[in-house]
Amino acid sequence: MTVTRSRYLGVLVTAALLVAGFLWWRAATPENGLRSRAGTVPRRGGQLVASLRTDPRSFNRYVARDFTTEALTTLTHDRLVRINRATFALEPRLAERWESSEDGRTHTVHLRHGLSWSDGTPFTSADVVFSFEAVFDRRTESLLASSLIVAAQPMRATAPDADTVVISFAGPSGPGVRLLDNLPILPRHKLQAALAGGTFAEAWDTRTPPGDLAGMGPFVLREYQPGQRLVLDRNPHYWRHAEDGTALPYLDRVVLEIVPDQNAELLRLQARAIDTTQDALRPEDFVTARRSEQQGVLKMVELGVALDADAFWFCLKPEAKKKDPRFAFVQKPQFRQAISHAVDREEFAQTVYLSEAVPVWGPITSGNRQWFDPNVPRYPPDLDKARALLKGLGLEDRDGNGVVEDAAGTEARFAVITQRGVTSYERGTTVLRDRAAKIGIALDIVPLEFGAMIQKMLASDYDAIYMKPIMTDLDPAASMDLWLSSGSGHFWNLEQTTPATEWEKRIDTLMLEQAAATDDRRRHELFNDVQRVLAENLPVLYFAAPRMYAAHSTRVINVMPSVLRPPILWNADLLAVNGPGADSSSASAEATADAPSSH
Amino acid sequence: MTAFLIRRLLFAIVLVVFAASAALLLTRLAPGDVTSQLGPGATRAEIAATRARFALDRGLVAQWTEWAGRAVRFDLGESFLYNRPVAPLVRAAAVNTAALAVVALVTATLLGLALGVVTGSRHDAVAAIVRVLSLVSISIPPLLASLLLAFIAARTGWLPVGGMSSVNASDMSWPAWLSDLAWHLPLPVLALALPLAATFERLQSQSLAEALHQPFVRAALARGVAPSGLILRHAWRVSLRAICGVYGVAIGALLSGSFVVEYVTAWPGLGRLMYEALRARDIYLVAGCAAMGSFFLAIGTLAGDLLLAAADPRVREAEPA
Question: Three-class SS of residue B75?
Fold first, then answer.
């Protein structure tokens, strides 16, 4: 018995030693090159590991709208011009310069000379013309096409020579050349056959061997391991150089790890397994991230006030609500103004976003510095005024049950659908419900899966919704689907054949004029009017916009954080790391991040 | 035995067809569909095209018939999320899940049985501690267990926080790659195996304690057989019947537990794939994952039955040839 027990004990100890030895050996092996080394001067070399939440749907941005495909496109492709995500200024990219005609309809774009695709093929104006053809090809059904429509007509591109492209608009456009930021330029020599054969929409799906892809971006796809990661190597033909002449990008490699769970993503960041996350941090992660920052593990950067705020709106589609007796008062602006008066936005920001938010009164937050109007009508917290507004509509608590009703006994009780599992929505709807109850409006919160919620929204089959609609662009003229009553993003009353209200008709007129105006000052005047009309009629109530923070490992330098996604990777060609792979011989290089020049 | 195997194979086929069809129909009937992934800004034309692509514009029966007709030729349709055929996606994920599940099952079995023998044959402080640890392990849900283990890994740096391989895995030689895979296994394996090992420990402990009171064991003791031999050669083998009886179910539990463990630890397996597919209402991917999951379950049940037959002569003898 003793001998047997000793033998078992020996086996167990040996097994434990083997496991411990393996773990020690693995822990001692440099794995990802993520250990920090001091220094702030960017040097060539090294790899950066970022996280993404999902796999890409395609390698072809023209037909896939998911964020992973968009992020991948940012790394592998370039555009004629780009809106700098940090300054919001327009920057030349593949276009070196351009001239616009006086009527704003014709733009002559001069391409940088001598550029090459990542496979070494020369880049010419034919590629630009091809990209326009592909995006507007009916068989492609490109998701980007609508963002390149001016005066209801697609842009036209012609190439008088190899380095020049003439882009024509059907009418004047307020955003003008800025719209070209929406179009990544694709290689004609790789995709022409697919376009001609009508298979462009299927081209460059995720089964495409990386060797068959080519781009003008700072990186090229080297490997895609589904469910695990995308590995990108430096594009040897990338066109951009830093001020000191260093060929960009600084990084040798970018690895995009696919981490579906956001909790695990933060843990990986804290464990230095990744350098940055795909998105901004959640408010509930701030405390943990700040602690890690104090320990020197990571660095938090403020991105600014979010461009999008939580919104609450009622279904205002008359066709869907004509038999609903509540619609008689819901459609009145005074009803929605009463709710707006009932909510204390300062308290809302503190409770829902743990004080990391600012109150807002319209869809354009102070994060959008160019278009934010601080003078839109506001509704200070005032319960008496709210009750008076309801009384003016004939809504009073006649039966003493705490809920107001009209003369016919119809109670102001509504089901509010919101997305399940989003903590800020859960907190937001709770605050809203409590504040609305104080003026006799009963809100029953119904969390749904995202898909179910969107389906109800598109079918106008709901009382009210609480969620965060996402603006597709900083420039309001690029979000016409939201502003126009006929728009697919006019979410409180989708795709109207004729404007349902006078104020919507007014907004239609103002926005069409604003989108066509080329004078910047006039555009701002018009859009301030739009914001004012919207705030007076309150089809949507906005309460608070969070302050956004992102986090990255301390070894990443040259970070220019942006409130737009992806907050850090958008300028990947300038990002650098202090770690294995960085060339110490170039330590004297005085390359600066924010003012690169082209060669 | 051949007839038994044929019966089990038929059962497996029925199970796979039923599970996949049920998954497809339930996904179709659940509120929302894959078009919600297009987002609020999608145009009506885009939504209609997507619905047509996934046959969501057709009746339930018509969609199922079309899908089943293709499925018999191993064409499981297209995935919306991945924009590629479902079959290779499911195959690749199933291999990863199988690797994880096999290691977790072996770990749980070895750990659970060994500790069950200890607690079933002893009544000292060690046995009491193991019993408490088992109860704790059974009580912790897989989500919490995986997050807890990931947290420990992040704090200590002893193990990778998640994933199946390191970022430089593609540059590694085969031995290095295998070592890297082994380095990434402990976290998800422990998250999956600990509750299972605890279940095995409890079952083994009780059945061994019962077996030790059987007349044939007492007779062996009277014949002078040493206590260790008594436990290992006589009582333990008989007590295994309880474990073998739940082995098939345990494999099912492994699969259901792997949903959340794979998601949290970013293990590119079937559970994670199915979870993502369900969230997106990616109808054919859900059906494909359900088919593969039920196939695993059928294999697990078969393995459990075969083990039971091997462990208990009465089962073997009762089975007609």
Answer: coil
Which of A32, A222, A267 has the CB atom closest to B151's CB atom?
A: A267
- Say how far apart CA B136 and CA A275 lie, in whole Å: 35
C-alpha A122/C-alpha B143 separation (Å) is 52
Q: Which residues of A touch B35 (CB under 8 A)?
A: 454-455
Q: Is B83 close to A57, i.e. CB distance below 8 A?
A: yes
Cβ separation A206–B82 shorter than 8 A: yes
Neighbours of B58 (CB within 10 A): 14
pLDDT per residue as tens digits for the range A398-453? 999 999 999 999 999 999 999 888 888 999 999 999 999 999 999 999 998 887 88
Regarding beta strands A229-234 and A219-225, do their DSSP bridges make them parallel or antiparallel, or are they unpaired? antiparallel
| Residue A283 CB neighbour total at 10 angstroms | 20
Chain A residues touching residue B93 (CB < 8 angstroms): 227
Check residue A23 and give its pLDDT.
Answer: 57
Task: Name every residue whose Cβ is closer than 8 Å to that of residue A194 and which is 6 or more positions away in sequence.
Answer: A200, A202, A203
At B35, list the tokens.
């078009």
| Number of other residues whose CB lies within 10 A of the CB of residue A589 | 18
Instruction: Report how far residue A438's alpha carbon sits from residue B144's, in angstroms, rounded to the nearest whole number.
Output: 38
Which residues in chain B are closer than 8 Å to A206, comparing Cβ atoms?
A: 82-84
Interface check for A270 against chain B (CB to CB < 8 A): the answer is yes
Q: Do the chains contact at A451 and B31, CB–CB below 8 Å?
A: yes
Look up residue B317 and give its two tokens. Answer: 């003898």
b/e B131-159 (16+ beta carbons within 10 angstroms → b): beebeebeeeebbebbbebbbbbbeeeeb
Preceding omega of A249 cis (within 30 degrees of 0)? yes
**CA–CA min distance B148, chain A (Å):** 10
| Interface probe, candidates A24, A26, A553, chain B, greatest B C-beta count within 10 A | A26
The DSSP code for A116 is B
In this predicted structure, the answer to whether residue B320 has a pLDDT above a threshold of 60 is: no
Q: Is A207 on the interface with B (CB under 8 A)?
A: yes
Q: Which residue type occupies B141? A: P
d(CA B274, CA B293): 9
> Against a cut of 0.90, is the pTM above it?
no
Distance separating alpha carbons of residues A108 and A222, to the nearest angstrom: 35
* Cis peptide leading into residue A566 (ω within 30°): yes
DSSP-derived pairing of the beta strands A253-258 and A47-52: parallel
In this complex, the residue of B32, B150, B273 whose CB is nearest that of residue A455 is B32
The neighbour count for residue B306, using CB atoms within 10 Å, is 17
| Chain B: residue whose CA lies nearest to A226 | B268
Each residue's pLDDT tens digit, B193-227: 998 899 899 998 988 888 888 888 888 878 877 77
> Would you give the distance in Å from CA B129 to the centre of its chain?
28
Nearest alpha carbon to residue A55 among A256, A213, A217: A256
Q: Are B243 and B220 in contact (CB under 8 A)?
A: no
Which residues of chain B are within 8 Å of residue A64 when distances are taken between CB atoms? Answer: 83
